[in-house]
Design a protein that fits this description.
45% of the residues lie in helices and 8% in strands. By secondary structure, it is α/β, with parallel strands linked by helices. It folds into three domains: 31-68; 99-159; 173-252, BRCT domain (Rossmann fold, 3-Layer(aba) Sandwich), CATH 3.40.50.10190. Helix 10 links the parallel strand 5 (217-219) and strand 6.
């Protein structure tokens, strides 16, 4: 029985390209390829809970969309607020990834963990990566071309939507305060939770969605006896009644 060579991608119907007896789909918007890139991205960053099925449910159009997700959108797509909160915390944690980890997550051909660590060992930021620094790091010619093409062509379009410092030194919350904050209820000192989160993040705090024994503060300006407050009190977590005053006091310390 003769086997016919497929001409089109079974996922996106894009015309396949035959290279060295292998078929390739060159459609950058192919959902099957995108899901694999997202899966690799999450795995490289150590994002727990982002398996194949979860990624398919999220129906992301690009890896940058991961950082646009919030608890509400995750809950709508996954049907579980508890799972959504855990995934949201994982997303926030991944924002502190160092340069080597970030580079290895982008699925750049020939730029895996080893190559990423090599280049990160000779530069301080992604902006210092060039032909000479790649040579100093011991990268091969093809790996260098792939990396520089990504930095020059793909990264500029993505960078504004990514939260990474792109620094070789991992920027962790512990370098500032080493403290995490959870917010519950309506706020009085900030118009939205998003603005409060931005202010806390700028001050060096890690904002999480769930109260655990590792949480340092709970912002509860409304004080309506939420389950988060009850748990925080049982764990002896400090309650912040006025976030604006709290941030001012910390800034003056």
């Amino acid at each position: 029985m003769r086997i016919e060579i497929p001409k089109n991608c079974p996922c996106c119907n894009y015309t396949l390209e035959l290279v060295n007896d292998q078929l390739f789909c060159r459609n950058g918007a192919c959902s099957a390829q995108l899901n694999k890139k997202v899966e690799h991205f999450c795995k490289a960053l150590g994002l727990k809970g982002f398996g194949t099925k979860t990624i398919e449910k999220l129906n992301l159009g690009d890896i940058t969309e991961i950082f646009a997700l919030d608890v509400d959108s995750l809950t709508d797509q996954l049907g579980s607020e508890k799972i959504a909160a855990k995934l949201y915390d994982e997303i926030n944690r991944a924002k502190s990834a160092d340069l080597a980890t970030v580079l290895s997550s982008f699925s750049i051909p020939l730029i895996g963990n080893t190559a990423s660590k090599k280049i990160a060992s000779v530069v301080d930021t992604v902006d210092e990566i060039n032909t000479e620094t790649c040579r100093q790091a011991g990268l091969g010619e093809k790996a260098t071309v792939n990396l520089l093409n990504f930095i020059e062509i793909d990264l500029p379009e993505m960078r504004q939507f990514l939260p990474f410092s792109f620094s070789s030194t991992k920027q962790t919350v512990s370098q500032v305060f080493g403290e995490t904050v959870c917010i519950t209820g309506k706020l009085k000192t900030f118009k939205t939770k998003a603005l409060a989160t931005a202010a806390l993040t700028a001050a060096g705090y890690n904002v999480v969605e769930t109260v655990t024994k590792t949480t340092n503060y709970l912002v509860d300006e409304e004080n309506k006896g939420s389950t988060k407050r009850t748990k925080a009190e049982s764990l002896g977590i400090t309650i912040i009644h006025n976030l604006e005053n709290f941030l001012e006091e910390k800034n003056n310390d």
